[in-house]
Design goal:
The chain has a single domain, classed as STAS domain (Transcription Regulator spoIIAA, 2-Layer Sandwich). Helices cover about 35% and strands about 15% of the residues. A 4-stranded mixed β-sheet has the order 1-2-4-6. Strands 3-5 form a two-stranded parallel sheet. A hairpin with a 5-residue loop joins strand 1 and strand 2. The radius of gyration is 13 Å and the shape is globular.
């Protein structure tokens, strides 16, 4: 199934000095593919995933699924996964999809 191509250009993800991945305002379509690649790259390199969600005004279910899978993969590999400052829209989408665990405080891996 091919997704329809909308007119707006993909928004960039910003990586801060603390290596925190900042989510764009709207997260669907192309942005979800980019999120998947960035999460995969970080996990493959053994990096913790710290994601800033404060500016999110809209997030699609596929993006939430990517984040849930990244959370599980991080736990499996004993890496920290956290979403900092999830916006009200982010929290609402998590609640509607049963993924409120994404908004939980970060878990520190145990040895």
């Amino acid at each position: 199934m091919q997704m329809m191509n909308d007119a707006r250009p993909p928004q960039d993800f910003a990586a801060s000095e603390t290596d925190c991945l900042t989510l764009p305002t709207e997260l669907d379509g192309t942005e979800t593919d980019q999120l998947l690649r960035q999460c995969q790259d970080r996990l493959a390199n053994g990096q913790a995933l710290t994601i800033e969600g404060e500016g999110v005004s809209r997030i699609g279910t596929p993006a939430l699924q990517v984040l849930a899978a990244a959370q599980r993969a991080a736990q499996k590999h004993r890496l920290t996964f956290s979403i900092l400052k999830p916006s009200p829209a982010f929290r609402r989408a998590c609640a509607e999809t049963g993924l409120l665990s994404l908004c939980s405080p970060p878990e520190t891996p145990h040895d």
